[in-house]
Amino acid sequence: MLANFNMLVGDTSRVGTYPAGASPFGVFDMAGNVAEWVNDFYSYNYSLEDVLNPTGPASSASFNRVVRGGSLGDAEINIRVSKRSAVRGSNLDTAPDSTAYLGDFSPRIGFRCAAGE
Questions:
Q1: pLDDT tens track for 37-57
Q2: CA–CA separation, 56 and 93 (whole Å)
Q3: 3-state DSSP call for residue 101?
Q4: Domains (range + CATH), the chain
């Protein structure tokens, strides 16, 4: 198996569990396991102006944030890294003990630490 998807394992997998699924650059787990939060706001009608590294709209009235890729619960066709969806992110203008402050969450969404050169 090259990735964790379609509930074949039933839970998330440790990073690097599928070495045969590594990218040509040696990066592990780019597909499946957990989808990944990104910093961009989400808009269904956003038009790409910068195709090299699009950042999305400057803000979102709904606080929706982009989630990329697929998770352990998605079918094989939906674990591609180009998959783009949205989840309600934090609203820091609300009370810290409110559910709106935290936004939505899921055990199927994680994040990836990355550094630019």
A1: 888 888 877 776 656 766 677
A2: 21
A3: helix
A4: 1-117 (3.90.1580.10)
